[in-house]
Write a structure and sequence with these properties.
There is one protein chain. Helix 2 links the parallel strand 4 and strand 5. By secondary structure, this protein is an alpha+beta fold. Helix content is about 25%, strand content about 30%.
Length: about 140
């Protein structure tokens, strides 16, 4: 396996992600920000953070598969969420949990950041996800 994930002692415990990923491999895969859109551009789950999180993960999975990779190869996830507030963590995590088994998401997740932003490129887009993977 090209990626080993760990959370060393002394770092914040009980996070839904690992703090460190160590990757070996020859292919670096960078997935651009994915949003909750179908292949034809149709918006998915307008106004529903959980639904949009699930769709961005599905789209990221498709992008990874296109590069002959999977979430098992991911070393970094960066989520951007509009108008972030702590009370949004429930719907955010519900979106992840809704597709975790379907997509084979590692649990805990790879190292991840959740960054609150004022807005994204269109008003209906509530979340965007970038991923970095290393594969053989």
């Amino acid at each position: 396996m090209p990626v080993t994930r760990l959370s060393p002692a002394g770092l914040q415990p009980n996070t839904p992600y690992h703090h460190v990923a160590v990757a070996t491999g020859s292919r670096h895969i960078h997935v651009s920000g994915q949003v909750a859109r179908l292949g034809d551009g149709t918006p998915v789950a307008p106004g529903d953070l959980a639904g949009q999180v699930a769709q961005v993960l599905r789209n990221t999975g498709r992008a990874l598969a296109g590069a002959d990779a999977s979430f098992q190869d991911v070393v970094r996830l960066t989520f951007y969420v509009t108008e972030w507030a702590p009370e949004k963590i429930g719907p955010f995590m519900a979106g992840i949990e809704a597709v975790a088994e379907e997509l084979g998401l590692p649990q805990p997740l790879p190292p991840a950041s959740l960054i609150g932003v004022e807005s994204l490129f269109e008003p209906d887009v509530l979340v965007e996800l970038e991923a970095t993977a290393i594969a053989q």
